[in-house]
Design brief:
Length: 89
């Protein structure tokens, strides 16, 4: 248990970098992109760039992805703790 606590504390010591979060969003985007219009894809990719330039918050992009998860019933993404870190199984 002591070793577990040590490693958990190490993992949680610093929050994820914004670039890591952008990578997760891009990976998630790949799961729904075939279902999106050209305009939706372009808007999301422009928004990613704005997020990387710290012009919009992460929550704006997360909400976009989450709406597509619900719209397309993307089960793999729906079950990811990245989007629902405290969901019950």
């Amino acid at each position: 248990m002591q070793l577990y606590r040590k490693h958990l504390a190490e993992a949680l010591r610093r929050p994820p970098r914004y670039t890591s979060k952008a990578n997760v969003l891009m990976h998630s985007f790949g799961y729904v992109s075939n279902e999106l219009s050209h305009e939706e894809k372009a808007h999301f990719l422009q928004s990613i760039e704005r997020y990387k330039n710290r012009k919009i918050p992460f929550s704006a992009l997360s909400a976009m992805i989450e709406s597509w998860i619900a719209r397309f019933g993307e089960e793999y993404l729906k079950n990811q703790t990245f989007f629902e870190p405290f969901q019950r199984s």
